[in-house]
Amino acid sequence: MEKVQVLAQYMPQAAAAVIARWIDYFQCEFKISKSRATKLGDYRHPFKNSGHKISVNNNLNPYAFLVTTVHEFAHLLTWNDHKNKVKPHGAEWKNNFKRMMSPFLEQNVFPEDVRKAILIYLSNPSASSCTDLQLSRALKKHDPELRSSRLEEIPLNTLFTIKDGRKFKKGERLRKRYRCVCLDNGNTYLFNPLAEVTLLATGT
Fold first, then answer.
1. pLDDT (tens digit, 9 = 90+) per residue, 22-59?
2. What is the rounded distance in angstroms from the CA atom of residue 41 to the CA atom of residue 11?
3. Which of 86, 114, 128, 134 could cysteine-pair with 110, CB 3.0–4.6 Å?
4. SS3 for the chain, per residue?
5. The Cα angle at residue 46 between residues 135 and 77, in degrees rounded to 5
């Protein structure tokens, strides 16, 4: 699956092409991770023979996923410019976050409440990171309403998650099981019709 297509399943469509270009330009290993209780995303600078590494949790809504992605790329750019000689969320990181967020604000990919929260954050030097409370609250409002169902009860091509956080699209039934594609890795899995799944809201 094309990089842009994969990214578009996790963030607003208009942002996916930009992020794909960043991944290629910075030669960054970009991983969509399972949900982590302690962090939304992570950046690791080059070490020995490895390059830049960014990971973002797969259970974030599209706007939170994009903000977290930009947050981590701002760390990457700051490391390129200053290595480890500056504070993680110091003035250098804030400036880079603002620069890298600009194209998405110009494209109006965010709903108005999230856009306003980002602009307030960018003008507030006392905030230590883009996960400040006001922005977090605005992003949280756009979390999908989830409900559980048996797999056999949901329509074909419906998106759903299972307990470990992986996302799937329901496919055709093959004899006793349903063939479903995992959106995280592109692999196909067979599911029992009675499997308990959690529906995902579609769209960005």
1. 999 999 999 999 887 788 999 999 998 899 999 999 88
2. 14
3. 114
4. CCHHHHHCCCCCHHHHHHHHHHHHHCCCEEEEECCCCCCCEEEECCECCECCEEEEECCCCHHHHHHHHHHHHHHHHHHHHHCCCCCCCCHHHHHHHHHHHHHHHHCCCCCHHHHHHHHHHHCCCCCCCCCCHHHHHHHHCCCCCCCEEEHHHCCCCCEEECCCCCEEEEEEEECCEEEEEECCCCCEEEECCCCEEEECCCCC
5. 40
